[in-house]
Amino acid sequence: MKNILTIILGFCTAFAVANVDPQPGPKPKNIGIALFRAWQPMDVFGVFEALWELGLLTPINVYLIDADGSAAMVKPFNPFATGSNTTATVLADYSFDNAPPLDVWIVGGGIGTRDNATMAPVIEFTKKVYPSLQYMISVCTGASVLARAGILDGKRATTNKNAWAFVTQFGQRIRWQPHMRYVRDGNVWTTSGVSAGVDGILGWIEYVWGTNVSTTVTNAMEWYHSGANDDIFGTLHGL
Questions:
Q1: Is residue 49 part of a domain?
Q2: What is the pLDDT of residues 121-164, one digit of tens each?
Q3: Helix/strand/coil (H/E/C) assignment for every residue in the chain
């Protein structure tokens, strides 16, 4: 019995040590999420769901922002070969010209990241706002925007393993991590593909607001939170 109690107490101690305390100082409040033609739905709304839950616990503002403050379509530039219609259109809250001051800027991925004309204003806005941000976050191929803006130079980063060749062509000074679910380097967070954005944003919430808050958000979503090192897709794609 004594040995069993010792083991149980050992587990409890291990979990207690793993708890993360909130970051000191002012917490970020204004969070912007990029929209553009042919964005990936879960890259935006998976993250948005976690932030929505966070907003029930602490004061934050989440803004959807695109180049001209209009409607941004999920629809890709070229029709699906299957003839499917799975599009949606979302109205932005602000444009890049009238966006409020931001503490956090989040750029997701999608087919649109492969179109240079579409991404040019997103890259320029990202480059412009980064120096004043508390945190910069990318999801999936959104890392290509950060790379093209020069933000990832000299940093560790990851991206969608299925789009590895496309994203990693940008920026030769980036230390790409092929076997990470998400990566933090300074105030920059990058995540792997699609659903990994949820794991990354939950990891970021834990880093900023602590384990108690992130656990509340995670449980409210009924999400199984994969850690930063919990990635199988690099191996799956032969990286």
A1: yes
A2: 999 999 999 999 999 999 999 999 999 999 999 999 999 999 99
A3: CHHHHHHHHHHHHHHHHHCCCCCCCCCCCEEEEECCCCCCHHHHHHHHHHHHHHHCCCCCEEEEEECCCCEEECCCCCCCCCCCCCCCEEECCEECCCCCCCCEEEECCCHHHHCHHHHHHHHHHHHHHHHHCCEEEECHHHHHHHHHCCCCCCCEECCCHHHHHHHHCCCCCCEECCCCCEEEECCEEEECCCCHHHHHHHHHHHHHHCHHHHHHHHHHHCCCCCCCCCCCHHHHCCC
